[in-house]
Amino acid sequence: MNSNSMSRRTQTGKKFYGNKPKNIYMNIRAIGIWILRLVPAVILLQTLYFKFTAQPESVRLFTRIGMEPYGRIGTGVLELIAAILILIPRFTGYGAILGLMMMTGALYFHLTKIGIYFGGDALLFTYAVIVFVCCAILIFIYKSQLEKQLKIK
Fold first, then answer.
1. Can you give the pLDDT at residue 151?
2. pLDDT greater than 50 at residue 4
3. Which of 3, 40, 67, 69 could, after both became Cys, cross-link 134 (CB 3.0–4.6 A)?
4. What is the pTM of this model?
């Protein structure tokens, strides 16, 4: 091996760059966590346009559940807060909890008053399920961080 070479292998076969090991599994885990954070944040943020601009479909949905206009604007604000918190690593757990609670409410209304198919398709219901699952996984991943920050054992 050339003495000027930047990389070398240890006895276990792990590759080193300088003094730091490059662990492919840590990179895959970090990428996976970022995907789990970006997916719900993007979904939550893209639906804000419809809520904050009083698009007819959004107004019709919240009228059907009896929460127009305060419920539409209020859920929009809470979803904005959840999306921002999910994207900040230190507060991801809190954002995931808020996102999970919001999607629990959304799923409840879809299953009781709105129906799975609203406006001819199940897109809103599907988005709610995706955000719910991603937030639940994030809560599990950030469980120890949340326990430490909230001093829960």
1. 84
2. no
3. 40
4. 0.81
Question: In whole angstroms, what is the distance from residue 43 CA to residue 49 CA?
Answer: 11
Cβ neighbours for 59, distance < 8 A, ≥ 6 positions apart: 68, 69, 72
User: How would DSSP label each residue in the chain?
Assistant: --TT-SEEE-TT--EEETTEE--HHHHHHHHHHHHHHHHHHHHHHHHHHHHHTT-HHHHHHHHHTT-TTHHHHHHHHHHHHHHHHHHSGGGHHHHHHHHHHHHHHHHHHIIIII-S-BTTBSHHHHHHHHHHHHHHHHHHHTHHHHHHHHT--
Tell me: the pLDDT tens digits for 64-112?
999 999 999 999 999 999 999 999 999 999 999 999 999 999 999 999 9
Count: domains in the chain: 1
Structural domain of 83: 36-150
Neighbours of 79 (CB within 10 A): 24
Query: Cβ of 142: how many Cβ atoms within 10 Å?
Result: 21
Q: Is residue 14 part of a domain?
A: no
pLDDT of residue 150: 84
Tokens of 145: 């961080």
